[in-house]
Design goal:
Blueprint lengths: L2 H29 L8 H4 L8 H8 L1 H4 L16 H10 L21 H12 L15 H11 L1 H4 L6 E2 L5 E2 L7 H10 L14 H14 L15 H26 L9
Antiparallel strand pairs: 1-2
Helix pairs in contact: 1-11, 3-6, 5-6, 5-9, 7-10, 9-10
Length: about 260
């Protein structure tokens, strides 16, 4: 094999490696998500026949106390209300696999009936916020409010990012409407809670409507790159596609026949 074909083969291999690396990077980005690990006790949760108090005493009282007043390991739930309990249970943030585990979103550890029973029991521990009652919202106005209050952490397209101390601001595409409204009031993790005087209920409905629309396909006719936005798309084009294009151009140039010299 001469030097020229050997060089072309190496360039083609390099281009293939770059394309494979790009595909793996996008696949890893698509699969990135934080999945909480439900406790062994919660994994064998009730079939719906147990009362909320029974499940609470079995799975929650270890940290929150038998009457929900809190311990050195977890805060009091007196006055937390149905809203916070429903959010943390349905987003898989509770129960923790151990008292020292980080609070992360993931699949819920209980079925719907058990969660509803637990939510009712926690709500009975004090005069806390009840479950939100949602109404129709304006997604256009919701977009404006989302960009002003939420996009700094969740990004304008709701793909999420990493915020202070490595805490994740999660992707919102598949978050339920009620959980979006609950998160606005509860303020999980590094997210600040928004009181009624900051965002009234209609404004929350508008935000919920906008976030709900984010899950719809918005990349008809092309690859959406998981809707991560123009910064990532520009980096992919600059660091992956452009080098591959230059390699192809170089290969085509080497294969082109040399111009014949004019006869004297």
């Amino acid at each position: 094999m001469t030097d020229a074909p050997r060089t072309r083969a190496r360039l083609l291999c390099a281009a293939a490696v770059l394309l494979a690396a790009a595909a793996l990077a996008l696949a890893a980005a698509r699969g990135t998500g934080t999945v909480g690990a439900p406790s062994a006790q919660a994994a064998t949760a009730s079939t719906g026949s147990e009362t909320g108090q029974q499940v609470f005493l079995r799975d929650c009282a270890w940290c929150h106390g038998t009457n929900g007043a809190g311990t050195s390991r977890a805060p009091s739930l007196t006055g937390a209300g149905e809203e916070a309990a429903d959010f943390y249970l349905r987003t898989g943030r509770m129960p923790l696999s151990s008292p020292d585990a980080d609070v992360r979103s993931g699949p819920p550890a209980y079925d719907d009936a058990t969660i509803s029973a637990l939510v009712r029991f926690v709500g009975s521990l004090g005069n806390g916020p009840s479950l939100p009652i949602l109404a129709a919202g304006d997604p256009v106005q919701g977009r404006k409010l989302f960009l002003e209050n939420c996009a700094a952490c969740h990004s304008a397209s709701g793909t999420g990012t990493i915020v202070t101390k490595g805490e994740p601001a999660p992707e919102l595409w598949h978050t339920g409407k009620r959980q979006v409204a609950e998160a606005v009031r509860v303020g999980p993790g590094p997210m600040p809670p928004f009181a009624e005087k900051q965002l009234d209920q209609q404004e929350v409905n508008d935000i919920v409507s906008y976030v709900h629309d984010l899950g719809a396909p918005q990349d008809k006719g092309g690859a959406g790159l998981d809707q991560y936005g123009p910064i990532l798309e520009g980096l992919v084009a600059l660091l992956v596609l452009l080098p591959c294009l230059l390699i192809v151009i170089r290969l085509l140039g080497k294969r082109a026949p040399a111009p014949e010299e004019d006869e004297q």
